[in-house]
Known about the structure:
- This protein is an all-beta fold.
- It has 2 domains: about 1-55, no CATH class; about 55-200, Jelly Rolls, CATH 2.60.120.
- Helix content is about 0%, strand content about 40%.
- Strand 11 (about 130-140) and strand 12 (about 140-150) form a beta hairpin.
- The relative contact order is 0.21.
- The mean pLDDT is about 90.
Amino acid sequence: MSHNKITVGGQAPSASGDVSIALNNLSDVDTTGVASGDVIAYNGSSYEASSSSISLGVVFLGEGASSNYPQTLNASDNVYFYAPNPINTIGATLLDSDTIGSDWYDGATLPAGEYIISCSLHGDYTGSTGITTFIVKSGSTQIGCFAQDVDGANNSDYPSDASAYISLSSPTNIVVDITSVTAANSTTTDAQSKRGYLQIIKVG
């Protein structure tokens, strides 16, 4: 019989032509010492069992609920986000730099890793000239793209949401920095609590 002259991964077919191959039958895969929870990783020349893994997760601050913004928008302040039920699967520490409380947060201390960050602001203004420019900040460094929130009667060439990517080697504070404000209203509404958000996705 000649049915077993051809092999795949060193395994000959059965009389019915079926070939059963285990992962370790592949010439460039070594599963020696593999344990539960391990992954297969490429070492530059072949694949081997590895205990290393990537922990993914998210921080999401935003509720869609009604609570007036806790302070007048001012340049150099951080943007605050309302979250009575914050989502935090990263193990981050949520920040309240101005000790406002009442479920308002202005960022998070993130552990080492790679992150994609996005956020929005919906402020209160005294008229059509109202505008706030803001950007994500890692420690004291601005990162990503600027964004602008404007009064409903205004127009802006900036995107309305700020976004950024950051790779951190150690725990770092991430906040959203207000760089400039025009015509901020000291009488605030619930616009930010209903529509504002901060989303931090751990991707590596």
